[in-house]
């Protein structure tokens, strides 16, 4: 089919579905929260952007697919999108860089606490599960704090080593610290947890789940001091491997899965603690998670199994402890989504705390999207942002004045219009009870 080119002066946006998110931000009072946060840097220049515009447009850029500062230009040229969000002018990438360059460690702590506490103190949620994990963000330039450390995929490459807290029940970030690449997983864990608990106000953590990187006496002592229930994956130290070797009674859970529990006391512990041990037969479960006992590689029994072990102060059955911990794998999925869809490993500046500030707002963008998925879409299976972007948000639209009314014309087939109207103007009540089933 032959055709000619023609041009129009209409300001058309490919992101008409962003009206849902604009409406949600208005209903939950996000712009008011930005205004209330007195720790946020402000510029006194008449020509500078307001902090509300800078932060809203930065977050919206992420929702539209930006995962580095250069990509934020995706929203700058979209005047119709700017009109949806009521931005007089959309910032360029350098405006974001200059703004985040004003952030310090103290500002990051204050801003993080303001927004994370706002999220969780307004949700009708209590006695939830807190997962804390660390990650590796490989760096290729000369960024402050990027150092050589544990980096399994890019060995020898500089990196940052952030620590992140997730509330599994609502798939939201509860706290975020950027750390230099040469820190261990558990570095300053207690300080991080204390700050995270402050974000919850009077809400209670029902369970803390940690991987083996946090298997340390001081961490268990602190959790017990705070009377917090926990499940921590154990490191396969020689004493623990010998303990497993001595175990001769196992309870069958399923085909190829056996479990036991007992009490174990390391040399530097003041008391014994409960340990749950799981073994899975490799022949029946070749993809099973776990470790082969390195001390007994040729043992005719041990070489047929992969083992995992968990230290806990919970009183539920050993099988329930294991199954509860298995759900912690969702935290790793959250980290993958943060990196793939929210720029968690690619928004970086030369300064350490400016980079941390940008990533804190990447986490805030993620939490806002979680609220949208939880309270507006209300789907049983939560879709990733990359799926929502092209299924829900990538809808052509333009403004047209009809009499005295400004209308946003949405380019949708008749079959999808009912769906669009169903989501439009959907009531949002953050105080409604959240099902965690």
Spans of at least 5 consecutive residues with low confidence: none
The level of helicity is 25-40%
Structure classification: alpha+beta
Radius of gyration: 25 Å
Count of distinct strands: 15
Q: Which strand-content bin applies to the residues? A: 15-25%
Principal-axes shape call: elongated
Mean pLDDT over the residues: 93
Topology pattern, helix = H, strand = E: EHHHHHHHEEEEEEHEHEHEEEEHHHHEEH
What is the straight-line distance between the termini? 54 Å
How is the main sheet built?
A: 9 strands, mixed
**Widest beta sheet: strand line-up:** 7-6-2-8-9-13-12-11-10
What does this structure look like?
The protein has helices spanning 18-28, 30-36, 51-63, 73-76, 79-84, 93-100, 105-122, 189-199, 217-225, 238-245, 318-326, 329-341, 352-377, 385-393, 414-423, and strands spanning 12-13, 128-134, 137-138, 147-148, 158-160, 163-167, 172-177, 205-210, 230-233, 251-254, 257-264, 273-281, 305-312, 397-402, 405-410. It is α+β, with helices and mostly antiparallel strands and 437 residues long. Among the domains are: 12-105 and 343-423, no CATH class; 227-319, no CATH class. The strands form 3 sheets. A 9-stranded mixed beta sheet has the order 7-6-2-8-9-13-12-11-10, with helices on both faces. The protein has a 3-stranded antiparallel beta sheet with strand order 1-14-15. Strands 3-5-4 form a 3-stranded antiparallel beta sheet, with no helix packed on it. A hairpin with a 2-residue loop joins strand 10 (251-254) and strand 11 (257-264). Helix 7 (105-122) crosses helix 8 (189-199) and helix 7 runs parallel beside helix 13 (352-377).
